[in-house]
Structure formats: structure tokens, C-alpha cells
Amino acid sequence: MALTKRWAGKAYGTNIGNVFLKLEGEDRALTGTLRMNEPGGVVAVYAVQGSFEAPTLTLTGQSQVQVEGLEFGDLTATGSMNAKGEIHGDWESTIGTAGTFVLFPHMGGEQPDDGPITDEFHVARHNFGVIEVDREQIIDIAENIRRDFPQVVVTVVAGTEQAHYLDDFKKLQFTVDKAEILKIFARKPDDKGADQIISIEFGPHVNTAVTQGANRAWVLGQLETLKHDLKQYERHYITNFKRWGLSINQLLLLGAVVLLPSFSSLLDRAIFMGAGLALIVGVNWLHSRYLPFAAIHLREKKKGFFKRFGPSAASWVLGIVAAVAATLVGAYLQGWLEIHAQPEQLPAIEATPNP
Predict the structure, then answer these.
(1) Looking at the domain assignment, is residue 130 inside a domain?
(2) Do 220 and 125 form a contact (C-beta atoms < 8 A)?
(3) Number of H helices, E strands in the chain
(4) Structural domain contains residue 177
């Protein structure tokens, strides 16, 4: 999808003011007009040319106004688009002025005149369990969002952070198989001029969907839609089985606390608690190493029964083994389980008759 053509924002540095940028043409050959209103009523107008190669916007500009006593140099600005679709960057001029800027996309109509933008916003959030998605599924998720939003930005973190419009993301051929973090962001103004926002993030520590807007019914309804669409990508690991609100770590710890008073000595209690903590740490390490909280494939993942259900099955087997190991340690310390060492066999000595 082509770069949004209307932007508004702020410039900072040696000159501070409100900025409005209007562009025309293809991404590789952009032209347009940039206006900056500085305090005191001076409006600087620049004819700009440049290009956008996601996520970088580069512009050069020449002043179109003359004000007695003021000098306007040629302008150069370079910025990068983030996951929210904003462009942040640096600007400088040939007369030595410089600073930073931020631009926000304006994709809808102008703010209506029948009332002010509401100052009340509603935010709804849902946290998912373990998530696994591949390239085609990422595109499906973003396409579903784009039915209601004109622009969708997909960001992946795979060594570096890359933000792309959905159409550009679909054309990419990644050199790595997996990403660490995936973000999908969309924003549009509602009929009152307030922003409606959808944000999805999958990563090593959190898998969440967030909706925000001035209309409470829209916020809650949109979140329910996201929950329904994304539920199919959840994987049920034993470390986070939400149906009962418990995990294997909590069960192991609860079992240790319940059984501690039954041990006769402080040493037995310490051994049992140490074994339980070691099992918890081991289960978590194995999950983080081989069964990540978010598996984000940048290529199409292999199909098959084992690929789909194997990680969940391995997680449950690992949890069951840990629970059995904790039970055996407790039984041994209680004296319910006896382990007899095999006596060492001594070599037979034949008697030598006396001469």
C-alpha cells in the first residue's frame, strides 16, 4: 500500500512549530508541500521531493516564501516509521538550523464541526496463552483487520525491528526463519475525530490484543472479534493451562507446601523443597528453550499432526514427568519408598587343602 499522503505533527530543535505535510505521487518519487507554523505567526512553506522505502522517508525541500528579516535555507529530513505508523526522525537546513520531528498519518476526513473530540477513552485488553503463527497466518490476521482500517502496519523483530505496511510485508522474502516479536497495528479516526486503535503483540513474555477508542461498545466488540479470530493460534502448554487458572509450577509449589509439615526433620524439608524448586526451574528452562511462549515463523511452517500437536504433547509429558519425580522424592523421604542397593559380589576364594 502506498504511503499515506497527509501528515501532521511537530518539529523540535532550533525551530519549534506545528507541521503539516501533503504528498503526491508514487513512493519512489514523492512531491508535495510542507508547512511549519512557528510561534509568532511565521509560516514556512517548502516544496518538497523525496521517496519512501519502508520504513524510511527521505525528503528535501526549497523555501517558497520570503519574509523580510528572516532567512529560510533548503531543508533535508529523514525519518523512520514505527509500529504505530508514526514517522520519527531528524531535520536540518543549509543555514545551520536542525532538530527532530514526529509525523502522524491523517487518513480520514477533517474533524467535524459539530462538537469537540471526546476526552473519554476506553481500553480493553486480552492476554493469550502460548501462540504459534506462520507467515500466511500473520497475513490473514492483518487482512481481517484491514477490512475496517485503511492502513495496517506489521512489525517484526528478527535481529532488527522492521515495520511495513501490509502490502509491503506480503512481498518480503525473509532470510531468517523465525522472529522474536510480532506487532500488528491499525488506527483510524471515528466520526467524532477520536482515534480507534487495534494493537496485537506476540513475543517471548506477552501475547496480547488491545483495542482503544471513545465508543465503549466498539472497543469491547472489537476485542471479542480479535479473541475469536486469534484463539485458533493458541497452544495449550502445561505451564499455562488457563482453563482452571493453574499451571504445573503452581501445582508443584502447592504440593510442596502441603507436604512440608509431614517431614520429620528440617533436612528432609529442605531436600524436598529444593527438589521441587529445581524441577520448577528445569521445566521453565526447557519450555523457554524448546517450547517458546510465541513461535513466530516468517515462512510457511511445515504441516502435519506432529507439528501441530507435538509441542503441546511434549509440554504435558514434561510436566507429568516433573510431577512424578516430585512424588518419588517425597515418598522416599517419608520412608514409603525403599531403594535397596545391590550388595557387592565378592570373588569366591577356593580353599587350598593343607599339604
Answers:
(1) yes
(2) no
(3) 6, 18
(4) yes
Q: Under 8 Å CB-to-CB from 322, ≥6 apart: which residues? A: 248, 252, 279, 280, 282, 283
Q: How far apart are CA 188 and CA 88, in angstroms?
A: 19
Furthest-apart CA atoms within the chain: distance in Å: 135
C-alpha cell at 117: 473530540
* Cut 0.70: pTM above it: no
Running DSSP on this structure, what letter comes out for residue 193?
Answer: S
Give the range of the structural domain holding residue 165, as residue numbers without chain letter: 122-235
Give the span between the Cα atoms of 251 and 350, in whole angstroms: 59
Dist. CA 330–CA 319, nearest whole Å: 17
SS3 240: helix
What whole-number distance in Å separates Cα of residue 65 and Cα of residue 71?
10
Note the pLDDT tens digit of each residue in 326-336. 777 777 777 77
Residue 114 maps to a domain = no
pLDDT at 1 over 60: no
- Whether residue 200 is found in the same domain as residue 297: no
Helices (H), the chain: 135-146, 166-171, 216-230, 248-259, 266-290, 305-334
